[in-house]
What we know:
The protein is α+β, with helices and mostly antiparallel strands.
Amino acid sequence: MKELSSGFEKLILVCVRSRDNRECCMARGSVELYDELKLAMAARDPRVRVVQSQCLGQCSDGITVVIQPDNRWFGHVKSSDIEEIVNWASSGMDLELDF
Ligand code: FES
């Protein structure tokens, strides 16, 4: 095993799981939400990485999004919530960015 340096300070997990004939985030448009959130987060703060995840165990409340290491969980997430999520993810970090 080799310890790696992530280069990121936070991760945002977006569930993109599909479940046949059962409630799931993909059926609610999570792949599209992931794409939008990834672009918005990269524009705001590249120290936060947005990744797709499998089921986060909150299927009936999806689309599920989690910010780590803050352990902030969001359910019923829609495109209109992206700005707020980006704000949450950016909070608590030194915002002196080198752009
Ligand atoms: S399918 Fe997204 S939380 Fe289970």
